[in-house]
């Protein structure tokens, strides 16, 4: 292949955006400076898809401090919160005056709920065709909303990351009534808050547009001004059946956008859930045993392929899961294959760090499940229906069954018996529910979700941290060791009255609300105080101070909807902190409770999470697998070298931008990011993984770009990619190894089958 300059220009440069992905310019604003970063790859939303011809006019802006950490409230207001600082007015001025960049005048547009939590928002540069005001009018009619926070949240619905599926005319949408009940005191509860239904036939079509391998039982959606979940109803002939609780504002948009769908998601404990379960007298030994088992798996997985598979099937759900499973099944071993070992080492290091910093313990007998409603009315109060798919890549008969009741059926199983249910974040001991899982034939079409009854004095989702059914995901475990011996009544999660205006909300008021959010954001402060006080108190999370903090946390969670801030009094601030919170400049003590024990166990046994059990280090020549050789590969070497150069150039650009390693980005197990990404870690990590996926897909396209070739030619071509990466001479030039694995596993499978 002759490499012309024109061909080189075609393949070099930024990673090509895949379908549903866009490049967005980004800006970081500190109290003193403005940093221009990007553009960065991210998934699209309803607005950026519709106005894709104006992508250059969109700008993402995030407000951070000078160290690129989150802005603290005290930077924007005085210690007593009575007067605003110059930083407050600087931020407000930027929102009102905009940012000039590349000859364009970017002005405030809107922000989604997740962006608000990250102190981030969208700006747009008006031109003769499209203005920010036109975009807001296109999204829907917000004039009847008289609460600033609620109006901002409704505008933000259209900016949620989503997948565009199909158009649904209004005539094919049925209106359902909400299921409601009233307490003797007159308080209304809505059992169907945020959920409707979708027909089986239409769900199949939507699943196809989402590239799902199976038809999910429920989808989290946006449709016009509706938001929430639609669950499959086999009896329905309407494409969609929606409820009033799902309708947030009038809109003429008729495209169904999908944010999430029911699927296999492993479940993990965290410090909040462990604190609550410990309060409810689950023994410390249970958590210590679960953590020790997880660490044992992590230590063993680098030593032999069987142990690697054991870990992958129960623990790992990252982006490269399929590749690693394929490598194991094709006969590769982490002992001899350096790229495979590097991915597993990155995964292991990230897992150990999560155990140390968050007590993130894997729960084999559990799942993270989307909440749904029993439309058949067969469940009673105190019951639920839980049917889950098997562990990834594992036949159902090999599943780690619970020790009470599991019924296998069509590659899924229904759990029966007691289950513990919680929804993060959870601070009140009443947030932990124990329900009776029952197997009822009428709900057998519901998989990978937890179905709650529509009967009783109060909806179970509302008892779990004041949740609902608009897409919330619930921690569910049928492990008998985690069923708490004690119970506690749930908290009253009635939100404070929202502040209503006597006029339609103005854009200036939304801008001021955004800055006030940063000033009043107390979620982290309250959660840390709760964790510290519950560790110190004999009553743990039942301590009156902890109970008040749980109430304040609920108010703070509702602030983006109500505009009512949570004010934390000085007497609720801890005087000292447990060692596991790592408060370097505060008074600390050695915690004797279970989280302290778990923390020190990891720190003492795995002080350096970069280290791993001994694996034989082999020379470059030994690592070059001659069993992969395919005759005729020499004729593809020139092209392979060119594509390797293109691939490594794009990959290096991503690695340098985010300050991560190849193993971290390709495994999705990222321990830390560049300084400017630290406080938006989850958002930034998603973009890193997205960039890696896009690069892999682009490289596969290069491989297939030459037209139809025979199987032998394809294998020879693939080995040429391996040769130019793994040959000892090539290893001296670059230590990047992921390039050939885009296409390589098939060769090993073919050669293994022939031998």
From TrEMBL:
Ranges where the RDRP core domain occurs: 29-602
InterPro entries: RDRP, RDRP_C_head, RDRP_core
One example GO MF annotation: RNA binding
Reactions catalysed, as given in the entry: RNA(n) + a ribonucleoside 5'-triphosphate = RNA(n+1) + diphosphate
Record keywords, A-Z: Nucleotidyltransferase, RNA-binding, RNA-directed RNA polymerase, RNA-mediated gene silencing, Transferase
This enzyme's EC code(s): 2.7.7.48
Any GO CC annotation of this UniProt entry: nuclear RNA-directed RNA polymerase complex
GO biological process, one term: siRNA processing
RNA-binding listed as a keyword: yes
Protein family according to the UniProt entry: Belongs to the RdRP family.
Function description: Probably involved in the RNA silencing pathway and required for the generation of small interfering RNAs (siRNAs).
Descriptive protein name: RNA-dependent RNA polymerase
């Amino acid at each position: 292949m002759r490499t012309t300059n024109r061909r080189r220009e075609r393949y070099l440069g930024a990673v090509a955006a895949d379908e549903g992905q866009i490049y967005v310019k980004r800006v970081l604003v500190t109290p003193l400076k403005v940093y221009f970063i990007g553009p960065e790859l991210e998934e699209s939303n309803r607005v950026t898809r519709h106005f894709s011809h104006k992508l250059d006019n969109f700008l993402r802006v995030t407000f951070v401090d000078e160290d690129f950490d989150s802005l603290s409230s005290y930077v924007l207001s005085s210690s007593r919160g009575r007067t605003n600082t110059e930083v407050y007015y600087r931020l407000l001025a930027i929102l009102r005056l905009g940012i000039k960049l590349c000859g364009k005048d970017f002005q405030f547009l809107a922000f989604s709920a997740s962006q608000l939590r990250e102190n981030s928002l969208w700006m747009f540069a008006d031109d003769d065709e499209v203005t920010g005001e036109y975009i807001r009018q296109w999204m829907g009619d917000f004039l009847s909303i008289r609460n600033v926070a609620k109006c901002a949240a409704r505008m933000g619905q259209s900016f949620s990351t989503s997948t565009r599926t199909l158009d649904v005319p209004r005539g094919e949408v049925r209106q359902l009534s909400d299921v409601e009940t009233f307490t003797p005191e007159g308080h209304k509860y809505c059992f169907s808050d945020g959920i409707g239904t979708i027909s089986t036939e239409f769900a199949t079509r939507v699943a196809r547009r989402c590239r799902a391998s199976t038809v999910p039982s429920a989808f989290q959606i946006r449709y016009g001004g509706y938001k929430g979940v639609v669950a499959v109803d086999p009896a329905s002939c309407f494409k969609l059946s929606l409820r009033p609780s799902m309708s947030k504002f009038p809109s003429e948009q008729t495209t169904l956008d999908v944010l999430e769908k029911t699927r296999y998601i492993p479940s993990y404990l965290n410090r909040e859930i462990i604190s609550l379960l410990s309060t409810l007298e689950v023994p410390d030994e249970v958590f210590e045993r679960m953590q020790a088992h997880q660490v044992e798996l992590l230590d063993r997985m680098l030593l032999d392929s069987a142990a690697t598979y054991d870990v992958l099937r129960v623990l790992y759900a990252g982006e490269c899961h399929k590749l690693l499973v394929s490598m194991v099944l094709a006969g590769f071993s982490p002992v001899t294959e350096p790229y495979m070992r590097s991915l597993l080492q990155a995964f292991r290091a990230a897992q150990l760090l999560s155990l140390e910093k968050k007590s993130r313990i894997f729960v084999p007998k559990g799942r993270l499940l989307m909440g749904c409603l029993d439309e058949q009315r067969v469940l009673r109060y105190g019951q639920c229906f839980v049917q889950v798919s098997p562990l990834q890549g594992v036949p159902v008969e090999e599943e780690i069954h619970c020790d009470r009741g599991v019924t296998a059926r069509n590659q899924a199983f229904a759990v029966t018996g007691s289950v513990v249910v919680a929804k993060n974040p959870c601070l009140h001991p009443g947030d932990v529910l124990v329900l009776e899982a029952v197997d009822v034939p009428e709900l057998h079409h519901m998989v990978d979700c937890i179905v709650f009854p529509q009967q009783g004095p109060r909806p179970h989702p509302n008892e779990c941290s004041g949740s609902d059914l608009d897409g919330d995901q619930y921690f569910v475990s049928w492990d008998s060791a985690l069923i708490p011996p004690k119970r506690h009544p749930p908290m009253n999660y009635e939100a404070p009255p929202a502040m209503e205006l006597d006029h339609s909300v103005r854009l200036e008021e939304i801008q001021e609300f955004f800055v006030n959010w940063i000033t009043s954001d107390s979620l982290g402060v309250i959660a840390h105080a709760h964790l510290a006080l519950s560790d110190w108190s004999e009553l743990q999370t039942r301590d009156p101070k902890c109970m008040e903090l749980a109430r304040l946390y609920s108010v703070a969670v509702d602030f983006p909807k109500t505009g009512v801030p949570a004010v934390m009094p000085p007497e609720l601030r801890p005087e000292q902190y447990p060692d596991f919170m790592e408060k370097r400049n505060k008074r600390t003590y050695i915690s004797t409770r279970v989280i302290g024990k778990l923390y020190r166990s990891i720190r003492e046994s795995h002080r350096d999470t970069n280290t791993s059990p001994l694996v034989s280090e082999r020379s470059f020549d030994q690592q070059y697998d001659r069993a992969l050789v395919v005759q005729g590969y020499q004729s593809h070497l020139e092209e392979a070298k060119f594509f390797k150069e293109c691939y490594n150039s794009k990959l290096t650009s991503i690695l340098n931008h985010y300050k991560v390693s190849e193993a971290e980005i390709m495994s999705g197990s990222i321990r830390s990011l560049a300084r400017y990404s630290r406080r938006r870690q989850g958002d930034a990590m998603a973009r890193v993984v997205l960039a890696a996926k896009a690069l892999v897909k682009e490289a596969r396209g290069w491989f297939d770009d030459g037209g139809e070739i025979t199987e032998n030619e394809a294998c020879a071509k693939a080995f040429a990619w391996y040769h130019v990466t793994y040959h000892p001479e090539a290893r001296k030039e670059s230590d990047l190894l992921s390039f050939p694995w885009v296409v390589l596993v098939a060769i090993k499978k073919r050669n293994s089958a022939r031998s």
